[in-house]
Each structure stands twice: as structure tokens, then as C-alpha cells.
Amino acid sequence: MPSSSQKEFGFSATGIGSVPFSNMEETCREILRLFPSMPFWPQFVRLSYREDMLLQFTEGLPLLEVNEQKRSVSVSSSGNTEYELASFYERFLADELESFAISRQFAPGLHMMLELIESDFRTGGGYVKGQIVGPFTFAAGVSDPKGIPVLHNPELFEAMTSGLCAKALWQVKRLAKSGRYPVLFLDEPYLAGFGSAFCTIQREQITETLGKLIRYLKDQSDVLVGIHCCGNTDWAMLLEAGPDIINFDAFGYMNYFLLYPKQIAKFLTKGGTIAWGIVPTSGFTGDENARKLIGHLTKGIKDLCKHGLEENLVRKQSLLTPACGMGSMEPEKARMALGVLAEISEIVRG
């Protein structure tokens, strides 16, 4: 198993999470074939409401009520808040991680991928990537009985963040049992709205909360933690939170990301990794090809290196991903996009 101090990815590729496919074993085997150095576990969002990025991580969290028909989660109006929070913190502070486990019922792709890795010695070594919804995206999508998002209730936001910390740690420890080095992305699409009227939280709260989650994981496990945001945001803010990996939509937002060259240079110099989301997802037409996307990637790297970075450093500390999850894509186009991503990785690594 590689150590966290040896993370020279050199344009290895991996996925974000959601896929539009229905055959679980076939999908997991294809992911292992395409991305042998860092397979990811797939979220089968079209098979079950439980695979929604909010619902998937609700097990073990307090006061929540899942509506199957609406595919939604909210704070229960009938719960005893004081009692449930006390019971929750008792489990959290006692490190009862199994009470925060992500079950096969909610994430069959996680369990199947790890079983395949563990059953075949040829898939050993390298990395394995997982993902979990970030605290801001989760708390913005869950409301109390009055319709107010948990994000604006300090007591509940603290509890949900702590619960996601425990669930993330459980996942990291489970990933590590595969014999591969665990990588965990915090998925924060909500932060693409930072600075707008729809996202009124303060910059300091974001860096403090994400930093707390990252430190919690790294203090209790050996893991690389990434932050994924598929739109534009204040990238300096996310870099300040202290992730090992920053993942952005390099196809649609390259120029916006490169507005922060000093912060990116500092991040890379200290050992950070950029995960370039180079293959489009929502706008994928099927006409994209590896050579054209490599040209876009190469230009971005050269523009970044104009600010004093060595190109070799950037290349060693780079990953490749799709721009975002693929759950909303047509299955055939998603297969093509994954194939193009693997081809780009093979070409630039060669």
C-alpha cells in the first residue's frame, strides 16, 4: 500500500461517483478495468432512491425522516430532539463507528467493489476512491418541519456535520481493509453558489467546517481527502480548508480556477494534488475525443506554469476525472465518456 507522502499520481484517472448503469457487477468490473490504479465505487442513482447523494448517507444520523415517494429527507417533526441528540453524541464520542456504517442496502456499489478487489489479488495495491456528501450540500438539502434548511440551525448543523465525520471515517477504514490506500472526496456542489444570494454562509464557516472534517479524518486514519465542486466557486477558500486533493470541472471552468495561481502554486508546492475534471458530463455530446481534451488540459497546465511552477511537478501531482457525476447521462454516452477518460490518462501517462 502506498504511503500518503508518495502520492505522485501522474495523471491516473478515477470517477466522481454516480453512474446511470443498472448492472452492478458488470459496472464495477469495468471500473476496475478502466481505472486500475484508482477505482471508485459507483452510486447507482437510477436503481434506488437510497442512492441519492443526500439519502445515501443518512443511516445513523439523528432526527431524520426519509420520504420514499418524494425521494427526500427532512428533520422529523415527531422526534424528541434533546433525547435523540444526546443519544447520537453518546455514540459519536464513544467512536461507535459501526452505528454509522453505510449498509449494502444504501450503497451496494461500495460493498460490491470492495468484494471484487478483495477477491482478486491482481487488483491489489494502488488506491481506491470513495465519496461522501459534504456537510454544506447535505445541510442545505435537508429542512426542518418549518422548511428551514438545517444549514441555518447551528445545533442541528453541528450534529449532522459530526455524523458525516463518523460516516466518512467508517468508510475510510472499510476502504483501507481492501489493501489499497483510501482516497475520499467530499462532494460539495452547493458551494458552487458561494457568494450568490442563494448561499449566504460566511467564508470562515466553510473553511472552518471543512477543515475540521478533514482533520478529524486524518487524525484517526491514513487517508487522502479531496474536495469536489463541479461549478465555479472561491477556490482559494477550498484550498485553505486543507484538502490533499482539489477537484474541479476543468472542461467548463478552467479559466475561473486559474484565477488563483498563487494559492494553487502554494497548494502544489506543499504536496497537494489537482484532480482535473477534463471530460464533460452534462454537456457530453459523443463527439469529444481524447486528443482535443488533452489539448485543453495541456493549455491549462501551461497557463498555470506561467506563474513559476515546474510542469513536471504539476504532472506528477495531477489526477484526471469526469467534470462531475454521470448519473444524469444516457448510459451509452456515460460509457463513452469513461472510455475517453481512460484513453486520456493512458496517452498523457505514456
Summed up, what is this model?
The chain has helices at residues 24-34, 81-93, 108-119, 135-141, 154-176, 203-220, 235-240, 254-257, 261-269, 290-305, 311-316, 331-349, and strands at 12-13, 18-19, 43-44, 64-67, 72-75, 127-133, 181-187, 224-229, 245-248, 273-279, 318-322. By secondary structure, it is of the alpha/beta class.
Kindly describe this structure.
The protein has 350 residues and is α/β, with parallel strands linked by helices. The chain has one domain: TIM Barrel (Alpha-Beta Barrel). The protein contains twelve helices and eleven strands. The protein has helices at 24-34, 81-93, 108-119, 135-141, 154-176, 203-220, 235-240, 254-257, 261-269, 290-305, 311-316, 331-349, and strands spanning 12-13, 18-19, 43-44, 64-67, 72-75, 127-133, 181-187, 224-229, 245-248, 273-279, 318-322. It has a seven-stranded parallel beta sheet. The chain has a two-stranded parallel ribbon with strand order 2-3. Helix 1 packs across helix 3 (108-119). The chain is globular. It starts with 11 loop residues before the first strand and ends with a helix. The model has no long low-confidence stretch (mean pLDDT 94).
